[in-house]
Amino acid sequence: MKRPEEAERKDDPKYCKYHRLVGHAIQDCFVFKDKVMQLARQGKISLEEDSAAANVIMIKSGYFDSNKSSCNVVHGDDIEDTLLEKEDSSNTDDCMSTITFTDEDLLLGSKPHNHPLFVAGYVREQKVNRILIDGGSAVNILPLRILKELGIPIDELSNSRLMIQGFNQGGQRVVGIIRMQLTMEAMVSTALFHVIDVNTSYNMLLGRPWLHENTIVPSTWHQCFKYCCNGIVKKVLDDSKPFTEAESHFADAKYYIEGAKKEKEVFSSEEPKLCGNQSTRKNDSSTIKVELSKDLILPLTQINLKQPSKPPLKGFVPSTQEEKKDMRH
């Protein structure tokens, strides 16, 4: 119930224009915030400011003198402020070089493709392949199954109230968060992962927080990413075989497994070409084999097909002259 005596005290810093009462400012009014978020979800109003959108990670980046940056997680009325310590400031040093991609960086040629960018790396001295580089993700994601495969207990996770949208047509609550060190070729970095219990086609997902924190520029077209280290541009190539035959049921596996099968088919259909005398020797040896086989199977022998006009009498012995006549004939 509104109080008439307080309706005219609009100049009071604790006057709420929504309730028309003195007690709290309108920017601290939770009921007003709920109404605004409800209208935004219904599409009746649009919020242009990032701070008013739900389930959005806001990373304040840039050239700071301090070694800390603020990360605000917005979820409905709850605002979670977390200070992220930068363990290695060498990755965010000023890079005066220009990061460019040329045709020499193309790993799949100039033909159009739809390959995602997977890389491989090491976490706690264990190799992890199929790390998806996704500049469209606002968080870094680690499936719970990979956490268990790495032997990391759940006790090491920090609590998080974040709800990630985009899984199973709905929200997926985060099990916890953990910061881990990654090694990719010569690059050593850290990433804050949000652990979720979802069956994903990737083993890890590195989103915009990790990309921006380490000044990384990825290119799915060139199948690599580049970054600056001490003013020098370096490159990390993709994982050329991220899937095995047992993992061929994943949607992205067709880009790698089917291509490998086609290469095997083409290789097996090609006959080995022999150079110079080798082809001649091959033909000679085959000819010799044929000739030998003919000699063995069909030997040439003389057969006398002439039959005597009369069968000899039993006990008759021909004379010498008759034997000579028979030989002449």
Report on the structure:
This protein is of the alpha+beta class and 329 residues long. 21% of the residues lie in helices and 27% in strands. Strand 15 and strand 16 form a beta hairpin. The model is unreliable at 49-93, 262-269 and 274-294 (pLDDT under 50). Residues 306-329 are annotated as: Disordered.
CATH topology of the domain at 93-263: Cathepsin D, subunit A, domain 1
N- to C-terminal distance: 147 Å
Major beta sheet summary: 3 strands, antiparallel
SS class? alpha+beta
Based on the coordinates given, report the CATH architecture of the domain at 93-263: Beta Barrel
CATH domain class of the domain at 93-263:
Mainly Beta
Biggest sheet: strand arrangement: 3-4-5
Strand content: 25-35%
Overall pLDDT level:
70
* Structural Rg: 41 Å
Number of strands: 16
Cα shape: elongated
Q: CATH homologous superfamily of the domain at 93-263 - what is it?
A: Acid Proteases
Tally of separate helices:
6
Low-confidence stretches: 49-93, 262-269, 274-294
Region (Disordered): 306-329
InterPro entries: Peptidase_aspartic_dom_sf
